[in-house]
Amino acid sequence: MTARVATLLELYDHSLIDRRDVPAVEYDAADGHTASLTFGELDSRSNRLAQQLGARGLQRGDRLAFYLVNRIEIVDLWIACVKLGVIVVPINVLYKEREIRHIVTDAEPLAVVTTAEQMTQFPAGVACWDVRTLCSDAAGMPDIRPTCALNAESPAALVYTSGTTGASKGAILTHGNFASNARGVAEAWRITSDDRYLAALPLFHVHGLGNGIQTWLAVGCHMKLVARFEAATAADLFESYRPTLFFGVPTMYVRLLDVPDDRARVVGKHARLFVSGSAPLPAQVHDAFHAKYGHMILERYGMTETLMNVSNPYDGERRPGTVGLPMPHVSVRILAEDGTEVGADATGELWVQGPNVCAGYWRRPEATAESFIAGWFRTGDIGRCVPDGYITLEGRRSDLIISGGFNIYPREIEELLLEQPGVREAAIVGVVDRARGEMPVAYLVVDASFDEVAALAHLRTQLASFKIPRGIVRIDSLPRTALGKVQKHLLPPFTPEGARP
Ligand code: MCA
Ligand code: AMP
């Protein structure tokens, strides 16, 4: 790789041009058989798709959203948009109409690429393009790379996240952000063209898109792209593909502990590196995985707004329960509420600075000003650093819940619950779950007109499945401070048996 890379295409050309005939990816084609492509074929497919997108009116700076389960066309779309300077807006495929509406209203994409079946989730007036039609139209276009003058500051994606406050905002991630992150990840975790990367993370989040896809294209290794991680078939997948490299969320590692020991040993023998992030990896999962697979999982910490911040070292000690040391070219400070730097082992908020930090929030100058201060980004994550530099995350300033690596903002669910007949007060709290890390539970003050079954049924039509409360606890009143703020830590503990009346 070159020393300094300004745009993603410069980074990818190490693979798309220099490694044209090298096998790049395998995936399940629509007819069920395993298909594969070389880097040169990826280059040509994305050229044709870029021509087709151009013919449909997309220009540099326009937004194009996708709402798709993992499939090879997302890769084609991504590279085509990079070539055109079009800004990609990934939408979580588990989102329902109400959640989607917020994103499309805010980002104003020219169109959303999805499937004919999934178009029903979209509000009227949103242009939806069927992915199959789009790609078959593209196949007839010339294999000519469009020319577009871009630089490191050019936006490549708007990825929606809620940051430290309520409403979901689009983090403007630039070519320079993705490129520097990919180079940092490859350098820190020794990823080379010899690797075999198993891509099971969803491509609509930056863990799968930023770390997975960008690093694969940057180093030119081989990738197997699967629709999604499924516990029941995970062992077969690892045994047949024999990846050297796997990126996952803690829930995936918990699920992998169910694989029989003899099969796990074989998987471990072929692997080089397992990386975990997006949520805390419990130390006992770290230990159990080591005993079973013979690998110390490398835990790291990132955010949508910053891509990767901190990582356990590749060669040094991978310390369970910590996220390690700052990534190459990333600076981290831990500050007290008054803005002064805390000492070793003292707790404070993590602030980060580096080429990984996004350009701000899309059309939200106030939210941008609150979080991007004097060249630093305030993460909202609380942690401490021991004298030898290892950082431990201890919590968050917001009451964000992370379930299976997906983020849940209590306020969104609380507001919907308050719209239900009979609900007077509502508080959503994250309770510990062995596999998913946390699960949302609702504490409600209700009157006789409340119908729990009807309320939950309504929520299921409005929210992604991972946001649906796993239990409802009825209480007489919510504990509040003198100023009326709910004190969630004073709510009675959740017991599944006590959840229902
Ligand atoms: C789960 N479901 C999915 C997917 N994952 N559907 C489509 N695509 C997916 N990728 C649906 C299932 O169909 C099911 O829906 C429900 O979710 C629960 O699935 P199940 O298999 O029972 O769950 P699981 O065994 O607990 O595993 C879930 C999972 C999933 C595979 C671990 O939670 C997941 O893919 N998490 C990754 C999230 C992620 O990438 N986060 C990164 C954020 P139904 O209930 O309707 O049947 S980026 C980030 O945090 C920063 C930057 C960072 O540090 O990385
Ligand atoms: P997102 O908004 O989806 O980008 O989620 C980012 C948040 O995930 C961070 O602010 C952290 O709170 C959390 N996170 C990511 N990696 C880790 C980790 N290794 N341990 C604990 N929390 C993590």
Description:
This protein has 501 residues and is α/β, with parallel strands linked by helices. Among the domains are: 1-18 and 27-177, ANL, N-terminal domain (Rossmann fold, 3-Layer(aba) Sandwich); 323-397, Luciferase, Domain 3 (Luciferase, domain 3, Roll); 400-498, GMP Synthetase, Chain A, domain 3, CATH 3.30.300. 31% of the residues lie in helices and 25% in strands. Strand 23 and strand 24 form a beta hairpin. Helix 2 packs across helix 3, helix 2 (39-55) packs across helix 5 and helix 6 crosses helix 7. The mean pLDDT is 95. The site of methylmalonyl-coenzyme A has 27 residues, from helix 7, helix 9 and strand 13.
Main-sheet strand order equals: 2-1-10-9-11-12-13-14-15
**How large is the radius of gyration?**
23 Å
Molecules bound to protein: methylmalonyl-coenzyme A, adenosine monophosphate
CATH class of the domain at 1-18 and 27-177: Alpha Beta
Number of strands: 25
Q: Which helices and strands occur, and which strands form pairs?
A:
Elements: H1 8-16, E1 23-28, E2 34-38, H2 39-55, E3 63-66, H3 72-84, E4 87-90, H4 97-107, E5 111-114, E6 128-130, H5 131-139, E7 155-161, E8 169-174, H6 175-188, E9 196-199, H7 206-219, E10 222-225, H8 231-241, E11 245-248, H9 250-256, H10 261-270, E12 273-276, H11 283-293, E13 298-303, E14 307-311, E15 325-326, E16 331-335, E17 348-353, H12 365-371, E18 372-373, E19 376-385, E20 391-396, E21 401-403, E22 406-408, H13 410-418, E23 423-433, E24 437-446, H14 452-462, E25 472-474
Parallel strand pairs: 1-10, 3-4, 3-5, 5-6, 9-10, 9-11, 11-12, 12-13, 24-25
Antiparallel strand pairs: 1-2, 7-8, 13-14, 14-15, 16-17, 17-19, 18-19, 19-20, 21-22, 23-24
Helix pairs in contact: 1-7, 2-3, 2-5, 6-7
Adenosine monophosphate binds next to strand 13, strand 19 and strand 20.
